[in-house]
Please model this.
Amino acid sequence: MNTTADLSVITLVMNASIVVKCVLGILVLASLLSWATIFSKSFVLSRAMRQTDEFEKRFWSGADLAKLYEMATTRADRSGAQERIFAAGMTEFLKRADRNGDDVLPGVRRSMSASFQRELDDLERGLPMLASIGSVSPYIGLFGTVWGIMNAFTGLSTLENVSLAVVAPGIAEALVATAIGLFAAIPATAAYNYFANRIERISNRFDSFAEEFLNILARQR
Model:
């Protein structure tokens, strides 16, 4: 245990026990994964919102459904999530166009529902990891803190004269783990809540569009 007066974070980390160093390494890795996911998910959701706005603008401008469908299928690699849901429903509708029965629109609904779920799963990718980092990191940091404090007080048992100068470095080393745990957890939790809210709004737009599109197809039957 270091008994010098240097209590800088770098010095504390360098002098920490191997267990605390492992805990700090795990927390730093979790923080890096969290931030990588945050930046990636921000880009994905911004693009999804932009593509949804662009498609809805074309759809509600009175464009012919056949032209919209042709555009969606010819540029499938550049189409947005809502456009792919539309294409899935339109494909099923065209397959059943020559049928007379009540199974046409339910079939279209099932096709769009399957496409909707795939798109939603893609948008939600990475959120479980953010939730896990946000909930687990404080406890990992707390484990490092408890271990560090135990190690510090164990070292004190071999000393005859104990003062604050002797105790402070060991306690500070332990508390660094809690600080890093919170540093990893807070952004992950905040990002999870923010992204979950945005995905819910996008999901509601997809659901509303699917219902309105079904109404349009019903009038064409």
The longest helix spans residues 164-220. Helices lie at 9-14, 18-59, 65-74, 81-95, 104-123, 127-156, 164-220. DSSP finds seven helices and no strands in the chain.
